[in-house]
Amino acid sequence: MAAVIYSLCALTSIMCLVLLWRSWRQSGARLLFWSALCFAGLSVNNVLLVLDLVVFPVQTDLSIPRLVAALVAVLLLLFGLVWEED
């Protein structure tokens, strides 16, 4: 059951990335760009989570790359929010 939930979370974040990217391409709003980049990092995080806990549960430990991907995603969104303050 956990594998299904992890996979659905990964698919949801990828879908959010696609929708945000499409909206940015149509409107040109820079906050949509930064949000899309954040969801790209979160998508990488979720895919690594599926790989870490479902595909390779014993062989590898991907916790550090997962944390780095999440940190980069949040920092990108934070930078975008600060950069687009006006």
What does this structure look like?
By secondary structure, the chain is mainly α. The chain contains three helices and no strands. It has helices at residues 2-27, 30-55, 63-83. Helix 1 packs antiparallel against helix 2 and helix 2 packs antiparallel against helix 3. The longest helix is centred in the first third of the chain and has 26 residues, at 2-27. 26% of the residues are buried. The mean pLDDT is 93.
Question: What's the SSE blueprint?
Answer:
Elements: H1 2-27, H2 30-55, H3 63-83
Helix pairs in contact: 1-2, 2-3
- End-to-end separation: 45 Å
Which consecutive residue ranges, at least 5 long each, have pLDDT under 50? none
Helix vs. strand class: mainly alpha
**How many helices?**
3
Residues in helix, %: over 70%
How many E strands? 0
Mean pLDDT: 93
**What's the order of the H and E elements?**
HHH
Biggest pleated-sheet summary: none
Strand content: under 5%
Shape: elongated
The radius of gyration is 14 Å
Can you describe this structure in just a few lines?
This protein is mainly alpha-helical and 86 residues long. The chain is 85% helix and 0% strand.
Highlighted features:
single chain; 86 residues; mainly alpha; 85% helix; elongated
